[in-house]
Amino acid sequence: MQQKVRFQHCDPAGIVFYPRYFEMISATVEEWFEERIGVPFATLHGERGGAVPTASLKIDFHAPSRLGDALEFRLRPLRIGRSSVALSIEARCGGERRLSMESTLVFTNGRAGKPNTWPGDIRARISREIGGAVSDDA
Amino acid sequence: MQQKVRFQHCDPAGIVFYPRYFEMISATVEEWFEERIGVPFATLHGERGGAVPTASLKIDFHAPSRLGDALEFRLRPLRIGRSSVALSIEARCGGERRLSMESTLVFTNGRAGKPNTWPGDIRARISREIGGAVSDDA
Amino acid sequence: MQQKVRFQHCDPAGIVFYPRYFEMISATVEEWFEERIGVPFATLHGERGGAVPTASLKIDFHAPSRLGDALEFRLRPLRIGRSSVALSIEARCGGERRLSMESTLVFTNGRAGKPNTWPGDIRARISREIGGAVSDDA
Amino acid sequence: MQQKVRFQHCDPAGIVFYPRYFEMISATVEEWFEERIGVPFATLHGERGGAVPTASLKIDFHAPSRLGDALEFRLRPLRIGRSSVALSIEARCGGERRLSMESTLVFTNGRAGKPNTWPGDIRARISREIGGAVSDDA
Question: What pLDDT score does D83 carry?
């Protein structure tokens, strides 16, 4: 997913303010659920009554990004658990790596926000993507 | 530092959208530099010509926060390097831990955004805070 | 309501990026509902099942605000309708006026998001505040 | 300019939180400067040393937007002054108008943030766009 560094992402030092990267990352995850898993967030949060909050993450910012940079975000699913999924996300600009992150999302459903077993169809599609990701690398 | 969960922090699931936590965390770091290190960000970024971008972080979200929650953010400096500082930040609501993070900030100065040796006065104050933090724990 | 201009509010030109002002204004309205009208947003959006979206606004930015500025936001209710309220909000720093806005909020309730008649207790309190505001001016 | 309503734009009521609209509007203005006026913001704020802060605006929110909505933003320049430009911006989803705004931007340059005469090339291109807009209507 391509995202452009806009004025609204930049701080007084002229570089992306790191909380804004998480908005771009959130958009990347949202797009992945829609395009690859086949569940738009409007459906997931609407009729399916679910949510996929982030439980933990680890991120390295390798180099600053500046106004006008075209960032390429790549998401690769790593592992699926009973109610969680581990994702790897990288952003690059040209050949340069700007950030790399590993995060764990959990599937929740209902007001309590407790982790819940993945619905079968979503689990199947994520698993297929992990399989695909592995074969892509193999 | 006390921060209230406002409407603008919450997502359609009614809980804090995690990128907004990083805005609260950024405000906590800013306040720490002003109150404990004696260098307001306006001075740091203005006449001192510096910046303290985040180089890496690791965060666990233990429980969701909701509209109206009063969060208590605590920052503890862990280690200082030639041009970096490691911080530990926790947010609690009442007795409950909501998030815990460890991050590394680097001091940069000039347009290139390269890490630079800490100015002597800032290094001395951060070191004193680390000493203090250690004694607080001892 | 006092709000400090933080790093997260500023753009590459070193001044407040105007969409961030609306986050400060939103916090001002939220605080007014809690402190003066006696209905915290958590209650309004929770057990009362309502919302107060902004229907229209008109704003003038008189002078830029910079990192570290302490802004003083003042809210004055102007008029109440069947399902709306008109507010006047100003922000100043020291003696200088930074922005002045007039906005209209509507009370809605239910998923449809249609304007609804104000609940009696909320209407009574807003009317009292308008009365107070008028007498303050008289 | 097409923009999708994402999770990060929505509030606990499930609709776009109005300050987030201004981020979409800011992106629309930025894209217009790049595509139609031929001055990317990176150039405007960088080598040209300028900025185009918003001096005032008036906006009506006609209907709420929800997660997943594809919004179409249209910008039409209305009038150019010595150092200002008046813009009209509308967002629609399908046939429905969601918001309409009129704003005035000023050209500034240098730290003082004072309005400055438009550079000749930018004035010429904006004027041509206004001419074009007028003929479109005629």
Answer: 96
At residue B137, the pLDDT reads 39
In this structure, what DSSP letter does residue A22 have?
H
The SS3 call for residue C126 is helix
Q: Check CB contact under 8 Å for C6 and B46.
A: no
- Tell me the two tokens of residue D6: 């994402």
Helix pair C18-35, D18-35: axis angle to 10 deg: 170
CA distance A136 to chain D (A): 29
pLDDT band at C109 (very low <50, low <70, confident <90, very high): confident
More confident residue, C109 or C86: C86
The pLDDT > 70 percentage for chain A reads: 93
CA dist A20 and A11 (Å) reads 10
64-103 of A, contacting C, C-beta below 8 A:
67
* D106: closest chain C residue by CA: C61
pLDDT band at B132; cut points 50, 70, 90: low
- Chain D residues within an 8 Å CB radius of B8: 11, 17, 19
In chain A, pLDDT over 90 holds for what percent of residues?
83
Tell me which residue of A12, A13, A11 sits closest to A21, measured CA to CA.
A11
- What pLDDT is attached to residue B112? 66
Cα separation, A89 vs D129, whole angstroms: 41
Question: pTM of the entire structure?
Answer: 0.92
Half-sphere exposure of B106 (CA within 13 A, CB side): 17
> Is D68 within 8 Å of A40 when comparing Cβ atoms?
yes
**Position C55: which residue type?**
A
Candidates D11, D23, D45, partner chain B, best to mutate (most B CBs within 10 A): D11
Nearest CA in chain B to A25: B19
Neighbours of chain B (3+ CB pairs under 8 A): A, C, D
A125 contact partners, CB below 8 Å, separation of at least 6:
A36, A37, A38, A39
Report the residue of chain A nearest D69, measured CA to CA. Answer: A42
Looking at the complex, report in whole angstroms how far the Cα of residue A63 sits from the nearest Cα belonging to chain C.
18
Structure tokens at C34: 């809690």
3-state secondary structure of D124: helix
State whether C55 and D64 contact (CB < 8 Å).
no
